[in-house]
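Risk register update: the risk of archive-format incompatibility is retired. Evidence:
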Amino acid sequence: MYALPTAIAVTGPDLVLPSPDRHTPSAAVLRCAAPPPGAYSLDQSITEMDTLIEHHGYVVVLCPASAPAAVTQRLHAVRSVLESDRIAVLRSDLPPLGIAVLALQLRQLSICDFSPGVLASAARLLSHYIYAGALLGSVAKLDRVPVTLQSHAKSWMPGTQFAVLATPRPALVKVTGDGEAHLQGPGFSTKLLYAPGRVAADWVTTTLAPAWGTQGVEETRLPAESARWWATGKLVEFAAAIPDISVLYQLVSSVRREDCHWCGLELIGDRCAFCAAPLPPPGERPAQPARALAPQGPRARPSGASPGRGPTALPRGAT
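Archived output:
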């Protein structure tokens, strides 16, 4: 058992969503990774990370794939200097608000009985269940989602808006004059968060949310990285995800666990999140004793919450 929850760290304060209850810990904001990267010395960065490891044992860092190279270089430099296998640096292709939602889900799961290796590798699984997108006033410079030439041309027309889904399946549709647009949503219960930029959020709250059957809608602040990620400040970013910790717990628990052949940590999926070692092919894996999915202890699985309508199957490629 681990005395303290594994620390979930992010690279900016706007990636920290409010805790939904008094049990969910906040995320650690790494000043060493916040822009500009050179504003924090390497020695300060090492001290900051070393303090997190001392208090929590393990640190899982969520870093946007769109972050400047200097940010990830600094994180890996700190890990190298500390010679620590207790730091997992996870680069995510999710849009900024999607990363904030993923960080919140990992924070919720950090108080359960998952080991650090399982918790860190769960980030990849959970990403497949986050429907992240934006309502954009222009797609002329958007390069993170496929955009047709026709959409580029329409983007120059005043008042044109586009509904764009970045994950889990990229899609782009033009919002018509009556506000209708069809983006395929999740087939399970979600809560929708939205962050307005320089565009009214009416379409997101009155059209998208009902079409997706979300169980709640909540406004939050727009992450600083969003305008750069979506290549425009005329946007409303949104993300729909599973809010129920009991459903998240069941989802992660349903996946087979393995032991990393390199560092020994538990993992789910095909790669260790801490040492990046791939899982050997099935025929080369050592036999493992049966492991209970929910051992009891000071950090046991959540109880007293209704499982709700959760995902019934893992998406292809989720693990």
